[in-house]
Amino acid sequence: MKRIALSVLAVACLSSFGVAGGDFKDVEPVVVPVVVVEEEKSGLYAGLGLTAVSTRDAEVSVDWGGTDRQDRLGNFSFLAGYNFNEYFAVEGRYTDSFTHDDQTEMSGWSLFAKPQYPVSEDFSVYALLGYGGVTLDGVSGYIVDYDDTGFQWGLGGSYQIMENLSLFADYTFPANDMDGSYQGNDAVKLDVDAFTVGVNYHF
Predict the structure, then answer these.
(1) Which residues, in sequence order, are bridge partners of residue 94?
(2) Could you give the C-alpha distances from 86 to 23, 125, 174, 181, in angstroms and in order?
(3) N or C, which end of the chain is more exposed by having fewer CB within 10 Å?
């Protein structure tokens, strides 16, 4: 008899609890947003380019088809730089000849400030403004020694082909009316123009 009474009491309590709990609303599930953190690029980049170089007497206009008192050289160019933001970078370059006319050889180095402007998401234009040095042995078969430093500048463009890879092309003026010597005596003025195409890897 006690067992029956206890069972009835338990059922009554559970029923009361169920009725009292009828006022509770359904709890909405908590949605936790997933935050995707993109890896930030360092701004550092390095590249390799092929450079067509014109070295000549300053009195002669550039002629890529070839002319007297001018040599056309093929150079490898190595560069490294740092993008502070999408509008400004600094860049250093070194170039050296691997093909030449009349045994002329040219090497040079440059340090540039690089203002740049993004025309679109993938394409940007830039200027190169800085200081550098050029060493040149011979011009069109003549014994010309040339080793000088001075202001250098250029213009170019860059196109992003992959997340970490971009193509670039630019035209620079490593030397303009810089002093050299002809056969160790007479002073001569020399110009050097360079057209470079290459690829940059962004770390």
Answers:
(1) 78, 109
(2) 59, 11, 25, 43
(3) N
